[in-house]
Give the backbone structure.
Amino acid sequence: SFDAGFSQLTTAFHSGARVVLLNYLLPRDVLKAMEREKVTGLTAVPPLYIQLSQLEWPAVIGEHLRYFANTGGRMPRETLMLLRQRVPKAKPFLMYGLTEAFRSTYLPPDEVDRRPDSIGKAIPNAEILVLRPDGTECAPDEPGELVHRGALVGLGYWNDTEKTAERYRLLPGREPGLQLPEYAVFSGDTVRRDPEGFIYFIGRRDEMIKTSGYRVSPTEVEEILYATKLVGECVAFGVDHPTLGQAIRVIATAPDGSAAIDLEALLAQCRIHMPAYMVPAGIKATAGPLPRNPNGKIDRKLLATGWLERQG
């Protein structure tokens, strides 16, 4: 439903492959189609992968599926592990991109075992920078904003010069033969680059939770919750708090999609595996699936707004 799907279509045209277009109602419908059509490659958003990983896959799928790739968000480690158990012969391509430049980075399958949380390095013909607010480059492992420069960067937002000026900025040339300034897109995502050049996603800058003097990425909270295997889907967000600044709240479903979560056991696992400032101040159990935005991602903003309205 967004640029990733269109890319699957055009890539298939270019390579002479067949595309299976599917307007599914249930995750199990995806598996049925993959079995029926002998699908060799799958690209999906993490919320769908989370649901698929909790189902039993027909063995025949693993005989045909050669690769799977993510789009629209970072793949939770627990989900990746379950998918690799379901289809051990399929190669995982972990990716990162943004609509304004489409695909930015990917992690080769032979690196997944060594760094399953990484989004990899820049794709060919793209330059990925990790910058401080003053525009200087971050040191290794220092968090900064991911900035993408290269041939795939868009021209801006249609009839929105203010937003275009905010996200698209000229950067001086840094490579031989690229002396002229070139437009780059500032992603708004916080990442870090390790000493070997591999990049790790931390979180959306506008979604970071500021609590007890710390900046917490909601995806970090969600990653630990998924690892407990006590939740099926979950979303974390911050709400205003008089002393903490923001308190961390979570909405989650049980693995079977119901609201039957053992909240005491879940919070106990949080206290074991999280620093005190990261432990959610409240968890609401609900039946799934959690609402999605038009791109298929769990709608964090909608759920946070609904929480506030209920409290109000």
Q: What stands out?
A: The two ends are 34 Å apart (CA to CA). The mean pLDDT is 91. The longest strand covers residues 182-193. Residues 3-15 form the longest helix (13 residues).
